[in-house]
Structure formats: C-alpha cells, structure tokens
Specification:
Blueprint: E1 3-7, H1 11-27, E2 31-36, H2 42-46, E3 50-53, H3 63-80, E4 84-88, H4 90-102, E5 106-111, E6 113-115, H5 123-136, E7 141-144, H6 147-155, E8 164-166, E9 189-194, H7 203-214, E10 220-225, H8 238-246, E11 251-252, H9 259-263, E12 268-271, E13 276-277, H10 281-288, E14 293-296, E15 311-314, H11 319-330, H12 334-351, H13 354-368
Parallel strand pairs: 1-2, 1-4, 2-3, 4-5, 5-7, 7-8, 9-10, 9-12, 10-11, 12-14, 14-15
Antiparallel strand pairs: 6-13
Length: 369
C-alpha cells in the first residue's frame, strides 16, 4: 500500500479544506497520513487518519525556527517513509519539499495564493522568492489556484513550467453547499464578510462602506465572521472590532464550522480583499448556495465573479466604490438577485466542483509515482 502524507500549516486548514481529498485517497487504497502543527482540530483528524504534530512558526521568517522546522520534517519523514507528500501552504511547500528532496521522497505542492508577502515588494518578499526558487526545483508537481500566480512564478523563474498546472481553487462540495429556499425571519438586507480579521482582507473597507450605507438605509445589517486571534502581523484586534460593534455599524459573529448555516441566512457575501488570494473558498461556497457576491477585481477573487452576472467586482482598497456596488446590490429586485445566485451556482458546477480538484490530484499522484 502506497503511503501519502498531506501536510499543511494548521490542522484547521486540513480539516476544513483537505478532508475530502484525504478521504478520497483513502478510498482509492492509499495509506493517508496527516501532518500539521497541533491545534483544536487535530483530535478530529485523528478520528479518521494517522496524524503527526510538527513544529511550525507561522508568524514570520525566523531562520533558527525555520531550520528547526526543516529538521523536524526530515526526521518525521525518515521515520514514517511516505511514498509521496502533498504540501499545502508556504512553509510545508518550501521546507517540507527541501526535507523530502534529501530523502528522495516525491512531492506535489499546492501554491494557494501568495498572501501578504507579495502585496508589497519587501525584503521578506525577496527571501520568500529565493526560498521558493530553490525548493520548487525539487518538487515533482506544482499546482496553482489561479492563472496570475502561475504566470508570476514562471515570469520570475521560480518554477519549471513543465511541472506546473492550474486548479480551480480548492474546489467546493456542491452537494453540501446547495441552495436553500428559506423564508426570511425579517425584512433586513444582510451582507456578510467572511475572512480572517487581517487588514489586507479588506476589513476596514467593508466597515467604512457599511458606515456610508448605514447613514442612507435603516433596514440593512453588516455581519462579520472570521478568526481574530490569527498569526499575522496585520491582524485586527478584538477591541478594534468591538469599537465598531458598539457604534452599531457591524455585528461580529465569531467563528463557525457550519458556515452553510450562516450563509443561508444572508443576502450577499462581500470580500473586498487586496490580499493575493488563491481562490477564496468562501466565495465558492457562497456561489454554490446561490448567493450573489461582491468582491475585488483582484488576484483570485475575480476568478469567481463574472461582473454583473453573478455579482459585482469593486476596486481594491476603495471603500467608496465598494459602497456603490453594495448599494447597487440592495437596489436590485429580489428576482434579479435570485437570477444572479443561479448564475453563480451554474459557474461553480461547471468550473469549481471539488471533484475536478480531486481527479487532478489522483491523476498527478499516479503520474508522479
């Protein structure tokens, strides 16, 4: 039985984004092992799979701590002897691949958005590019989640083009995320922002747009869902969010594992991100549930929305343009929004079904092995 490791920087991301891939590989007869830093989701992973904790500092590029991570990957993989490792997120993609290359273990990497590192060209960006370049030469296959990241890596000569392919994001389970015809409990129009509470996700653009619209309309609500306590230099504090809550501009919902229950209660999903996204999972889930979307004309985000068809695109970092698009959505008829939602689900089924992603992985694993 061939042994496959799936590695990511959090157990949360394995549980929320890679579980169906792991289950499908298991069904196909592979021995699946999961590797990530321990968090509250690790015990859930252990219920179905062999799991190993690994040290990883997700906050930055401390060379001593990163060397420790490479050594841990090396020791672990030497012990468990996988035939192939599927890496997700930056540090497994880089350090996991370097460790595997020393042990002659094959790797398939998934570059799922470039995050804040590539928003502005900094010294850390140069370090990241250098590390990508030396590590990705040793990978057997590299998947990107959007064409722009793929083209950037090829242009910068960070990867070999013949090793690369593009996935439709991480895909979405269209049987789980499906439209629900539900009568609203009130007549309020509800917007929902879903993301980690970091600046580059467009948190303040959403709040400022909400402030503008709150002064014009009384029957609208601006909801926010996502983690506050994240390892990121741009994280927004709980006090900052509560400040706007007290002014009745937004309502913060915390975090959830049942996002579909919240999605079914809202009218429109908003993600004004200027972060370099892969393909935002929440946009795929919302569109699959026939919810219209407003997002930025930005890397990864624009792939999910055909402007004016299943939602609207706004300018990145422009809260006034965002407010205009949100007002436009409010003033559409219910029938027009319903058609938008239906067009969104059609797009998801055609382009972003999770089955497409899983099939590509199954094919790539066979080829690499």
């Amino acid at each position: 039985m061939k042994k496959i490791v799936i590695s990511s920087n959090t157990s949360w991301s394995l549980y929320n984004f890679r579980l169906n891939l792991a289950r499908n590989l298991k069904k196909k007869g592979y021995k699946v092992v999961l590797v990530s830093p321990y968090d509250e989701y690790s015990e859930r992973l252990k219920e179905e799979f062999e799991y190993y904790d690994i040290y990883m500092n997700n906050k930055g590029t401390n060379p001593v701590q990163d060397i420790k991570t490479i050594i841990e990957f090396y020791k672990l993989y030497k012990k468990i002897k996988p035939d192939i490792v599927l890496n997700f997120t930056i540090k497994p993609n880089i350090y996991g691949t370097l460790a595997c290359s020393r042990l002659n273990i094959k790797t398939i990497n998934n570059i799922a958005g470039l995050g804040t590192l590539f928003v502005n060209e900094k010294f850390t960006t140069k370090i990241a590019k250098f590390l990508y370049k030396i590590s990705q030469k040793k990978a057997n296959k590299i998947f990107f989640q959007n064409r722009e990241d793929y083209q950037l890596f090829i242009k910068e000569k960070l990867v070999d083009k013949e090793k690369c392919d593009i996935l439709p994001g991480s895909g979405v389970d269209i049987n789980k995320f499906k439209p629900i015809n539900k009568k609203k409990k009130d007549n309020k129009f509800k917007f929902l922002f879903v993301a980690r509470m970091i600046k580059e996700k467009g948190v303040f653009e959403y709040i400022k747009a909400a402030e503008i619209l709150k002064n014009k309309y009384s029957n609208i609500e601006f909801l926010m869902l996502g983690a506050l306590n994240v390892d990121n230099p741009s994280v927004i504090s709980k006090d900052e969010i509560q400040k706007y809550e007290k002014r009745n501009i937004i309502k913060y919902l915390g975090v959830t594992d049942d996002i579909e229950k919240i999605l079914k209660e809202v009218d429109c999903i908003v993600l004004p991100s200027y972060y370099r996204e892969g393909t935002p999972r929440v946009l795929l889930e919302a569109a699959a549930m026939e919810k219209p979307i407003i997002t930025t004309d930005n890397v990864g985000c624009r792939d999910v929305v055909d402007d004016g068809t299943n939602g609207f695109l706004c300018k990145p970092r422009d809260y006034r343009d965002l407010a205009e698009k949100m007002e436009k959505m409010i003033n559409l008829s219910e029938a027009e929004r319903k058609i938008m939602g239906q067009k969104g689900r059609e797009k998801i089924i055609k382009e972003f079904d999770e089955k497409i992603v899983i099939e590509k992985y199954l094919k790539a694993i066979k080829e690499v092995l």
